[in-house]
From TrEMBL:
Signal peptide extent: none
Source taxonomy: Bacteria, Pseudomonadati, Pseudomonadota, Gammaproteobacteria, Lysobacterales
Protein name, UniProt field: Cyclophilin-like domain-containing protein
Highest taxon of source: Bacteria
Domain (Cyclophilin-like) ranges: 5-113
Transmembrane segments: none
Organism: Stenotrophomonas lactitubi
Amino acid sequence: MKIRLIINDQTLSATLADSVPARDFAAQLPITLQLEDYAATEKIAQLPHRLNIAGEPDGITPVAGDIAFYAPWGNLAIFHRPFGYSKGLVRLGRIEGDLQALRAEGPVEARIEFE
């Protein structure tokens, strides 16, 4: 499933995984989120509805470009830098291309929609 993130007039293309949590996330699109900095590694935002993660691995080691769901907090996490293994993190998809728009300091507004 192809989606796009629109941040400050920049469009980032991404592909969602073929998984139950990714389909749950896609069902919430289109959506506009206020993405906040977290750990100088990712941008995060609360989703309106939690995602079903039944059958997913216990965690992942995210890389730059990963779109993920952090089940313990119920938030979306978009990584612009790699990070260590995180229990409760579920990969939803991946952004292709430049991640500079995500590296801006402070919060950014992102519109996420189908391509």
